[in-house]
Amino acid sequence: xxxxHCIIYGNTVTALCNAMGNAAMCxxxxxxxxxxxxxxxxxxxxxxxTTNIIMANWSREMWQGVVNRAVRMLASGPFSENFxxxxxxxx
Length: 91
Fold this sequence. Notes:
The protein folds into two domains: 1-42, no CATH class; 44-91, no CATH class. The chain is 23% helix and 14% strand. It has helices at 53-56, 60-76, and strands at 5-9, 12-17, 34-35. A three-stranded antiparallel sheet has the order 1-2-3, with no helix packed on it. The two termini are 38 Å apart. This is Ketoacyl_synth_N domain-containing protein.
């Protein structure tokens, strides 16, 4: 299976070239053979499990504080240019 070519503007992947095997067929000026980035590639999600007895008994508020700190680090840390936005919730 051939992978699509990425259209990069600055440091950001903005679209995909759908002309498999012939990237020269992609025309940015009239959007010929240009496709949007699929939704499943626009977000990162996951879950966290701990076996530490102390952390396992933390309250929801304490865990929300941890994920809020992670969001702040994504927004201002070395990877900040790679995230248009970030949010995290504790279920």
